[in-house]
Design goal:
By secondary structure, the chain is mostly beta strands. The chain is built from 1 helix and 10 strands, in the order E-E-E-E-E-E-E-E-H-E-E. It has a 5-stranded mixed sheet, with no helix packed on it. Strands 2-3-10-5-8 form a 5-stranded antiparallel sheet, with no helix packed on it. The radius of gyration is 15 Å and the shape is globular.
Length: 162
Amino acid sequence: MAVVDTYVVTGTYPNSVASNSNGAGDLRRAVISFEVDSTDEDGSIYRLMQISANSIITNVMIGNDAITSGTVYHCGFYDVEGGAVVDVDELGASLDLSAAHISGSELSAMSAVDVANRDLKVYELLGKTVSNKAMAYDLALTGATVGSATGTVTVFVDFIAG
């Protein structure tokens, strides 16, 4: 068994589609699929994508196979440079992947973001300023209680590119 800390895909915007413009920028969707392995240990970090600090995340949804005992995952941000945690659960805390979330019943990974803050840029959500923000951050799921089964996780990230 091992703690995993890996990019589950490569590239800044994996499988993204830029087809909608709302005046503030292009609305994009990244679709990231990966496997949680039964041997992954608690504390594993699944780095989903690098996202610009100036982007606005409008929605993050998770579809997954049932992952036995996979009851605590967090959705947050890590530094691209060095990989240190910035805020492990800025978007979502204690997400339960032990039950399957199929198409139409996906789990919201933005439950920790107040409605009043849904239009903030990533760096603003993190409490950073223009002068101390990074260029980009790693969006990641962190498994506090990873579980004991192998299963597929698909994450849909809707954002306005900044």
